[in-house]
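Exercise 7. Predict the joint structure of the components listed below.
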Amino acid sequence: MVVVMTPGATDVEIDAVITRVTDAGGEAFISRGDTRTIIGLVGDIDRFHGLNLRALAGVAEVVRISTPFKLVSRQHHATMSTVYVGASRVPIGPDTFTLIAGPCAVETAEQTLAAAEMAKGAGATLLRGGAFKPRSSPYAFQGLGEDGLRILSDVRAETGLPVVTEVVDVADVELVASYADMLQVGTRNAQNFSLLQAVGECGKPVMLKRGMSSTIEEWLMAAEYIAQRGNLEIVLCERGIRTFEKATRNTLDISAVPVAHDLSHLPIVVDPSHSGGRRDLVVPLSRAAIAIGADGIIVDVHPHPETALCDGPQALVDGDLRDLAHAVRVLPPLFDRAPALPESQV
Amino acid sequence: MVVVMTPGATDVEIDAVITRVTDAGGEAFISRGDTRTIIGLVGDIDRFHGLNLRALAGVAEVVRISTPFKLVSRQHHATMSTVYVGASRVPIGPDTFTLIAGPCAVETAEQTLAAAEMAKGAGATLLRGGAFKPRSSPYAFQGLGEDGLRILSDVRAETGLPVVTEVVDVADVELVASYADMLQVGTRNAQNFSLLQAVGECGKPVMLKRGMSSTIEEWLMAAEYIAQRGNLEIVLCERGIRTFEKATRNTLDISAVPVAHDLSHLPIVVDPSHSGGRRDLVVPLSRAAIAIGADGIIVDVHPHPETALCDGPQALVDGDLRDLAHAVRVLPPLFDRAPALPESQV
Amino acid sequence: MVVVMTPGATDVEIDAVITRVTDAGGEAFISRGDTRTIIGLVGDIDRFHGLNLRALAGVAEVVRISTPFKLVSRQHHATMSTVYVGASRVPIGPDTFTLIAGPCAVETAEQTLAAAEMAKGAGATLLRGGAFKPRSSPYAFQGLGEDGLRILSDVRAETGLPVVTEVVDVADVELVASYADMLQVGTRNAQNFSLLQAVGECGKPVMLKRGMSSTIEEWLMAAEYIAQRGNLEIVLCERGIRTFEKATRNTLDISAVPVAHDLSHLPIVVDPSHSGGRRDLVVPLSRAAIAIGADGIIVDVHPHPETALCDGPQALVDGDLRDLAHAVRVLPPLFDRAPALPESQV
Amino acid sequence: MVVVMTPGATDVEIDAVITRVTDAGGEAFISRGDTRTIIGLVGDIDRFHGLNLRALAGVAEVVRISTPFKLVSRQHHATMSTVYVGASRVPIGPDTFTLIAGPCAVETAEQTLAAAEMAKGAGATLLRGGAFKPRSSPYAFQGLGEDGLRILSDVRAETGLPVVTEVVDVADVELVASYADMLQVGTRNAQNFSLLQAVGECGKPVMLKRGMSSTIEEWLMAAEYIAQRGNLEIVLCERGIRTFEKATRNTLDISAVPVAHDLSHLPIVVDPSHSGGRRDLVVPLSRAAIAIGADGIIVDVHPHPETALCDGPQALVDGDLRDLAHAVRVLPPLFDRAPALPESQV
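Solution:
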């Protein structure tokens, strides 16, 4: 940590900083510049934060240098992690490329099964589908709830695909975890710390979507909340951030994949459906995601997107799905990744 | 609602849109342009949403025209609302200007009482203070929990100031409502719909902070979630949005005050402390908030900001607090507002 | 300047940094932390920049501490500046509040004179009006050019109001300066460095609009370009930045006024017309600008906004103009400012 | 174009809109909704813009439907264009993938030649290099000017690589065009309309960088300015947009490639060096650019990045350059593109 003093900071003010740091058991090194003095701190960073140095007279800035996250950081865990999902242990990690696909929302048993078959045909090894839907409007379709979970469970039995589904409420975590193989925390709950802590104790892997206005650092801090409760089975999901551009629903921050891989050992998947919000962008963005080194993608498919209750405009249909199937089969090997297969089938 | 077809849309595609709309009991009016056809829809907007017209072949865009919120909209409730807080019924609304002040976090009984006395001395009629703190880092101070609520309750007894405090978890809503006079939903929970629904049933007024990346429309939709559960005692709070500018923690969107007042009958307060994140901006931003027509402000005060466990750098101290006290006494009358007084003292 | 090394930086890498700094005549102070080493530099900052330390092996970050601007900085010029415009020397500075008003675009002599009379009636002491208009579309009205300048000059003769008008091309600077009393550099040219240098030599005061995506620091650096060519008669103009919010054309960054006043001695005016893009926001935003300490505002007025060739939707008409006139007369004195009067009439 | 009336619009107000439209030779179709009336317009869009309908009483919004650009639009030119650069006619277009590489700034003849040899060795067929550098600070290195152009010209003679270089001032367009094979307009000049018009008449191809806060539509409108002056030899360059994320200098908007390809027939290249501002991101972002269908990339290389006068931290060195060379040779054929070769060598 570095404390930057204001140009006019007095010796008394500088001494006050040093005293506070050394009283807390830290060491302080002073550099006196032509216009400013800076003070480097050595010792326990967390304790320094508690000192609230920024509030001292004469202090212009306190620059943090150490990474604020620990358990999810590569500094403390250099090897990339693989997360295994479901009884058949489908891997998400550095050696494979995983396609997660399914309907945005579970509507009926027929629709979910049809979508799952489409997904599986395209190479998906995990089924996504929403039973609890967070919607901007209280008047929009909110999902089938436990009925939806039951449908997902039945479709898993039928197809063999483990299930990823969103949880939006602390009170539902246990219920959702009893049906699902992986719990998803959505973008609107990316800093709902109670929910993060709850899924940190649920005993199932978690897919953590990036908040639409979260920095990569805040996203990793959110993952740290989950990890701190004992759950390191976390998959990060980049799903677009909010910018001024209006041609797409969100702006996919493709750079986030290598940036987060550099900072954290957790696997990262990309959501090309919700970031663009446009069907014609799903396959191009999926290709970009594979090429940049994502560990997987999660896409919307729907047997009849024109009647979908949620996000129909971005669900893949026949032609596009064939293109996607081709991409996830052909491209990953070029980047030293195998298409994901359950461990039981390897 | 207006459906805009793609330039090459066929008659069959156009007819498909019309059929779907009329089958749903709506009316459709066609305008054939030189390059495109547009179709105007008349009828029940909510039902049209369910039709998922955007997913039909040949449809380029569906433009919504009606306002998506109802209960909080001025279209359905032209008169501006006043929300009354606490047993003494402190008003927040169009005729008054309300100062809400207190420590960012409750740390000790002494600190909270001292801050409350400072607040009261400056003209505050409501006490803010956090017992449950949502923090980006799981390693940061998370608040005193129920102990903090008890301190706030004691300080209310001592000072007569009703208490505003944040709730971050559905499971705590009842507990917090049993101590507090007004519940606050923070920026990170602005689209935590479960929490919004829970405070919609808590029987106490709610202060709803704007999500740091919420549009004004999404913010009002979040309020609609609360209102839909029967609670219309909602105060909106503009607290800055996330932009590229780094000189301030967030960018206070001062225009949001007149824009939201135009769309909604709910009162709006401004948080000049968290938007700027800098003590020297609190008084200038407070003046701007009064001048633009905010119904109140909510500010951080702390007896010893240099030792504050949370957000010390922005807490007001002596000199600034005197300036603030002056501003909230002198300026509101120029804009036809009285300094807020409990109804019991009017 | 502080050099932050990567966690794994070797002694050889640390020495390489120190050697390069000391070879360049600087001094380096080392602080070895538990995970990282940081090096504080003392000496000529500009020379350090040339060293490109960030490109050295083992360097994680180079944090600049000194302000990058000099001539426009308060560090080198603590007293706030006043800029005087026109033969009658209308002041823009800390003691007054200046209303600049007129049509967005000069269309005809009649329209410009009528708008100028409206402006003057409302308390304006400077006339704005565009002869060269930068438009997003090449098919939109681009302004009358020199004919427009001649009209402005005639209207100045008639009304006594000095003229502020935009220049968009280096080749036109001399021409525009021969007619205008103050040159405006628009938001799209905020980092057109050739134009900034050209107006730095034009011998007339300059109003520099903030780039719609410029940080406050970049804006002041742009001003430094003008100052460096010998022209310190610069007025900054905050006109809104680009964000995700769609209810307003841009988001007025009202905090920029106190932030820039803290960093620079230059006066700052606010443009409430172009930031919001909505007539109903002009008066509220103007009140906020006065209250927060702006040195003036610049607004669009038009005798017949419904036929305006440019930005009609935001031009003030009768009722609003009366409200604005009232605000600029009554509010500034509360903040220790006089309504601006030409020096000749003081 | 669709005119949306306010909820309370009167028949008189509706009639006023219709009269204005029909007086201008257009047709108007009315749809009366439950809360609002909307009016569809058919006829000459440009003339409708001149009518300034938004300024009429009772008008809430005017929604444009036709694309605002023509010459660069795919609606008027369905086949994708190829731009050929230099005497050897190096193609940039749908059938090839073009690597443009070289030093950010020309510093010396030796450095430029060495960088060009590195570029050529990696597969580059065009040399980039800046002689005129737009820098945020007036105190930073501004480029060698005409001396730099002469060096680039000499290096072209030596290596056979046609030259792409930036022009920042209308007054220099002729000079730069006399040396360069392709002129670049930088992000800070993306809406410098005078410069756009000047390069529209320069007789050489133009690379147009996206403004860091330009929407894709505004970017294409900027291209339209060039095209309107008779120059359709335009290559678009996506180089990152400004967002709240701080881990990268800008956020590469990778979706802009398919979105712009859908709207315009112009080729698009990606700049992975300036978007990320980090060397370790250049190769991953380049791979993503190839995979998503970009027509080329433009990257910084420097023989000694640790002494580069400009942007050293992102210049590629040996190991990375080999990875890049591999990527541009192996990946494009998978997406039906050949590595670019001068037409003379095909």
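Discussion. The interface with chain B takes residues 46, 49-50, 52, 54-56, 68-69, 134-141, 168-171, 188-189, 191-195, 211-213, 218, 221, 224-225, 228, 242, 305-309, 312-313, 315 of chain A (CB under 8 Å).
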